[in-house]
Write a structure and sequence with these properties.
The complex is a heterotrimer of chains A (530), B (119) and C (99). With 119 residues, chain B is mostly helical. Chain B is built from 4 helices and no strands. The longest helix of chain B has 28 residues, at 85-112. In chain B, 1% of the residues are buried. Chain C is 78% helix and 0% strand. Chain C has 3 helices and no strands. The chains are: A mainly alpha (530), B mainly alpha (119), C mainly alpha (99). Chains in contact: A-B, A-C, B-C. At the A-C interface, α6, α7 and α10 of A face α1, α2 and α3 of C.
Chain lengths: 530, 119, 99
Amino acid sequence: MTGFQAPNVEWLTLSPLLVVFLAAVVGVLVEAFVPRAQRYAVQVGLSLAAMVGTLVASLVVFARLSPTADEAELGRVVAAGAVAADGPAVFTWVLLSVLGLLSVMLFAERKVESGVLTFAGQAAALPGTEAEREASTRGLSHTEVFPLMLFAIGGMMLFPASNDLLTMFVALEVLSLPLYLLCGLARRRRLLSQEAAMKYFLLGAFSSGFFVYGLALVYGYAGSMGFAQIAAAVSADTGSRALLLGGIGLMSVGLLFKVGAAPFHAWTPDVYQGAPTAVTAFMAAATKVAAFGAMLRLFYVAFGGNRDDWLPMVWAVAILTMVVGSVLAISQTDVKRMLAYSSIAHAGFLLTGFLGIRSLDEVAPGGLTGVSAVLFYLTTYGFTTMAAFAVVSIVRDAGGETTHLARWQGLGKESPLVAGVFAFLLLAMAGIPLTSGFTGKWAVFAAATAAGAWPVVVVAVLMSAVAAYFYVRVIVLMFFAEPVGDGPSVAVPSALTTVVIAVGTLVTLVLGIVPGALIELLGNVGVFIR
Amino acid sequence: MELYTPILALMVLALGFAVFSVVVSSLTGPARYNRAKLDSYECGIEPTPQAHGGGRIPVKYYTVAMTFIIFDVEIMFLVPWAIYFDELALFGFLAMLLFLVNITIAYVYEFKRGGLDWD
Amino acid sequence: MSETPFLVLSAILFTIGAVGVLTRRNAIVVFMCVELMLNAGNLALITFARTTGTLDGQIAAFFVMVVAAAEVVVGLAIIMTIFRTRRSASVDDASLLKY
């Protein structure tokens, strides 16, 4: 028996992850020891500091990315093979830290609820009881949402960087479990919120059951959890193919569930509608980034050798997802639900970019790989959707947010600025030129076409046209319909939400006009280490 | 087989001691019963009567169930670690220390926020 | 000794769990079925650790158990809140969000 060798831990490379997890743990201690009155300030300060810290650390790691021994890829495998800090992984770290920073600001918004968080004052108090009223009059707030969010961010950052199946599974759960809880913590419409949490939890746990079984089958096929060893086993084609194909199928159920792709999308509208809007914004933007990053790595690195086996499945799922998302969005009467179906459609577009898998020597110099295209789309979509949900969170009436579309009639007359910003964001989601939605779609379609997936691209273009219909319908509603009753009103948010909306809109505009720099950057770093 | 001899010996010893104490105390001790003594033993708390056909278990037990999980998870990693303690040396010790501190933080949070207060 | 019976057992357990999730009404029972699926995964992992002669599977089984435990805590908390609000843990009653 060989002796135990202590693994070498590359602290600097792992520092972005460590900062987030450390801050989350400290956040739990803050909840335990800091008096109630100061918790809000301490938690927000801590979370903002953590996100800025991890952003700086990620940028440092990004700048220090160095070529591997054979000069083929950027990055290195750290933490005894568990984490791959390569171009795509570190890029998602940077992206997630920025999105996380914006989410902290959304979470910390107190002005629209006149001085309390938009989260439940006391989750344990039953809705409609004396205890709940008391919690609300005393101005209680669950500041636990901040550590929970930090844990989720930590899991999200680990997810696309994980270099073996086990790390991937643990990261998946670390990101999911806090999200289940966050979904159930809305201050208003608590029954909806609790129901959303239960649905998300039961279906999420169901899908992770599939993921675990798939993981076991792939391990049985390859005899190892490491992606490099699995890739080697796949190329050598030893072992039972039934195990491999079964494993790939079951694991993709787990991952496709997380990205909200049809036919595993059923939770998305319910959860997006029921969850507190700040959480919805966070989930819609950040979870997609993390889950697609992980999916890209798993399929490109570990299963890249037998892509002919699984590409047809992704074709079918991509087409189905786009059709389901775009068509069902048309009949929606709730803004959050409509944005949820739109996010399903976007998952389909992202899967289209996912089809752009080619081996490196097939890619023309300067051409887009599937990885670069998907990462670019994730960047554009993340900022747009976060800003859109931030806008939803400030259109309110006496009962809280007014998400019913009928109540949005005439918003353009009430508040031209907010309606204008929302219209711009919707146009970006529809993919109108001069917005980031257009450049993003162009990138994924180009990558998919180059890899020969043109039938999917044709469907995608058709579905973009269908999707444009319901986005434009909302714009028409806002600007050309008369307000019903006293109409919607726009709460004046604090600087926090304003900054989120401004940043999201600005990024949407800038990436729509000058996407070149980011695409070029992604072209340079968009290769997974093997 | 002889590896198991100490375990067998311990089992015999434990069994013998248990039987011995019960038998001897019932033979030699005074037998003065009252209501509390005749009640079923519930770790010192008043035994709650079961409703007919089972009945519901009070909600408050579920925080205890959740706390149990903390220690459940803890022991699962402690056992393999303890077996190879010598080999894992300082790295293993520090890693386990980090793990235990993290687990304890969750416990401290529950304790400080009144999760363990009865009633 | 052949490992096939263990794999067959784990597949059967997984199927029972998956079917249970889809057919049962009580959230707690649904959740127990999910746990059954995770444990079927554990059995498969340990069996494969034996067939492939590696330790990874056994280590993974530990982590799956931990994750399952954490999931129990979060899940019970959510189901408890729902139950206390509605006096019912039936997933059919949770139907405010639809279409």
